[in-house]
């Protein structure tokens, strides 16, 4: 049997609320500590407990860590999903299951490994009866450790990290791991090809989730106020702020330099954040699609009144309640045009957890520089799942507070300023902050029609002038938003444009398209709207640009056609919105389908053109013969 080393997936099927997350994260971190590139995806239902849940670990020596559409190794611990889990294993794969599940196993094309989990835990006198189900999850960790080669010392390190050095739970769980490994060594014969071997490809990397990264980045960016209301999958972002702010942001006199308020609903949460932003604080909120719908009115107010605030949208699949615990990129067009009337939002699109950190602090600089709401669109897969990342770097440049006038500034210009007056031609006015003691610093903040000096008006020309200036701010923003990331390839003939957490799947699909189909694709990952000059240049290069995204309707494709109508015929939408994280398979197959269709159409067009030329040629020859006959006859 040929070994398959460091290139397979492991899926654990359990029940929601069974306490398996500790075991699953221990597996993930142990393999990561062995130096093997890895990712973990948690597929959980939206109820409290009882329904099936799956956790999938992808290991790949070459660093391809997007979700796979098939299962190599399955661990079945849930009777309700047992038949489904068994059927999901690829031929030649491995199926581990708790032997107290008495259901038929008829497959002969996979390796079958029963595990006496309950018996092993019951025989350990150090495990209290009410902890047996929880600790029992560690037995399958031990069995896998023995059969596929996970270093037990790395498991101990992972448990110490999880339990924060508390020796009693560490010992209790590690003993269960060792018991599972010892039983497997004595009782199981290896019948599958999968094996782990230590590498060094995770050296210097960390592992975390996007919501935690976003929270820490926001703290490093100077967040002073956060208003929020719980909603999956954004709640853990605010909860991470609550965890880390007391550690990182206390003064020497032990007083806090921040405030976090859980509001009564999302509308109130953003309303508080807008008020804090108006008062000069670095202010934010976090939510998901349904919450964002409620925030729309205040988002429009902040846009028109030009108040800096940061809004994190950790996307889930809709519409309506939709699938609250599934991932999506379905809020893009909604956010880009959010609010009634004419408005264009500035949007940041992080592609990994490192960028969640970076955009955590950069978003505040942008909000204050442009004086507008900044939306950061993450998603459930990036926000709640564990990802490898380079360590976060403390921002080197000072905070950008934008065009703020302090007392001495107003004194120097002798009060010659207007709150909505564009003095520099960039669309961005100057502002003062409440507390400024200069008598000429005050103005009336308005969400209604106003002139350059914040005076109420319904005069059409003044309203239009103000709206044109607001639009000009978006042009100015292009020099401040993050530029796209380019992944060029030599001799590329087509382009791929994507954004957000689809990056891992696109990179793997691109490799397969080149290796197996000879299609060489240049790849550009967009990181912000409005589009920058790099996007302009990329789109001008190719007559086929495949736009990859996780939604049904191809929302980025729609925006591209609006912004670049001259290239509209070149855009090929590769959109898929089933709530699952992007996989290389659907990206590859989606591109192939559109590529082959376009190529076929091109061949047909050439064929028709050739046939048309031949028909014209034949007609000319026939006409010439007729003329010749007439001349001869004459």
Can you summarize this structure?
With 634 residues, the chain is an alpha/beta fold. The longest helix is centred in the last third of the chain and has 50 residues. The model has no long low-confidence stretch (mean pLDDT 94).
Secondary structure layout:
Blueprint: E1 4-5, E2 7-15, H1 21-33, E3 38-43, E4 52-60, E5 71-76, H2 82-87, E6 89-98, E7 111-115, H3 117-122, H4 132-149, H5 152-162, H6 167-187, E8 194-195, E9 206-209, H7 210-220, E10 225-228, H8 235-248, E11 259-262, H9 266-278, E12 283-287, H10 289-305, E13 309-317, E14 323-327, H11 332-336, E15 346-348, H12 353-370, E16 373-379, H13 380-384, E17 386-389, H14 407-412, H15 460-477, E18 485-487, E19 494-499, H16 503-517, E20 521-526, E21 528-529, H17 533-541, E22 545-549, H18 555-563, E23 571-575, H19 584-633
Can you describe this structure?
The protein is of the alpha/beta class. The protein has four domains: about 5-205, Pyruvate-ferredoxin oxidoreductase, PFOR, domain III (Pyruvate-ferredoxin Oxidoreductase, domain 3, 3-Layer(aba) Sandwich); about 210-390, Rossmann fold (3-Layer(aba) Sandwich), CATH 3.40.50; about 405-480, no CATH class; about 485-590, Rossmann fold (3-Layer(aba) Sandwich), CATH 3.40.50. Helix content is about 40%, strand content about 20%. The chain is built from 19 helices and 23 strands. The strands form five sheets. Strands 10, 11, 12, 13, 14, 15, 16 and 21 form an eight-stranded mixed sheet that branches. Strands 3-4-2-5-6-7 form a six-stranded mixed sheet. The protein has a five-stranded mixed sheet with strand order 18-20-19-22-23, with helices on both faces. It is flat. The termini are far apart. The mean pLDDT is about 95.
